Amino acid sequence: MPATLSPTKTRAALRTSARVSLQLLLVLLMTAVTLWILGRMWSIVWPLVVALLLTTLTWPPTRFLRNHRWPPALAAATVTLGFLALAAGTIVGIAVPVAAQSPELATGVADGIARLREWAAGPPLNIGDDQVTSALDSATAKLQDSVGSIATATLTGVSTVVNGLITAILALFLMFFFLKDGPRFLPWLTRQLPGRLSTDVPTVAARGWNTLGAFVRSQAFVGLLDAVCIGIGLWILDVPLVLPLAVLTFVSAFVPIVGAVFAGFVAVLIALVSNGLTDALIVLAIILVVQQLEGNVFQPMVQSRGLGLHAGVVLLAVTLGSSLAGIVGSLLAVPVAALIAVTWNYVRDQLTDPVPVPAPDPDPDPEPAVENAEGVAPA
Fold first, then answer.
1. What is the DSSP letter of 366?
2. Cβ(283)–Cβ(192) under 8 Å?
3. Which residues contact 320 (CB under 8 A, 6 or more apart)?
4. What is the pTM of this model?
């Protein structure tokens, strides 16, 4: 006789599925509301996030000064001004070489376009000058028709630059206050929260801070190694803009996987325009070797006790972040994923029943004494 489904068990399974589905819908709804609120408050949230990332990078020297009896305000002000001077020097170090070598690059781009036209005019494409001229005329007409859109885009770009400056200024001020008053935050938070939250939230915050610091410092170290190795290769090949390309490699290291691809593409393009195809292929080989060393040697060594995220999770997080929020999403994807992992691990630990410790075995009964042939037990 074939087995039949139990109506009682079926109804119980459906009720359980419906209850779990409703709970998941409520969690997703709460997540969507939280993200919507963060989006409405982004003008405040973004400087706060930037300040936290900068604080994790500048906290070690601040802690060193505080441990050597520097007042908190003086230590924070010294590190903030030092960081500002370093950032300004880096920007000047990039802008000056770019401005000095821009005519050479413009000439190289023009020569590259001329060579490309010569190649396209021959087999197998056989594109004549009249076809190129027609395409240029069409592009010019479309450009003239898009003057209004270009003006709007220019105004948008100016607004973006202004917002970026405001964000940078706010982030610097917040970084100063975080460096000065950061150690007081967790005790203050403990006093403000009721009940068990006064223990759980500060604990998760402390673990998240350690994870965020591990991410920023490890990415900075790996980015510095990449910048030095690739910069030496570009310098040996006499590729222009070595310092800006090295700085771009260092900055791009904070966007895992995607940043390395972007920085490598720019370096190969500059080498192709300025030095030719052979040097561009050599630069590509150098970048591939350095990236392989980074992915298989540097990062496992540096981040083995850091984030604890699989490379596939990192790639998916960066892809999702870039699709949701562009460059900002790519930058924040891995830290956010690491913080989610920290929170989940803590919640899982709290919800897991402790493993019972087996009771020790009672002392075994002493072995009975064996009497000898004379009926006397041996001593």
1. P
2. no
3. 329, 333
4. 0.65
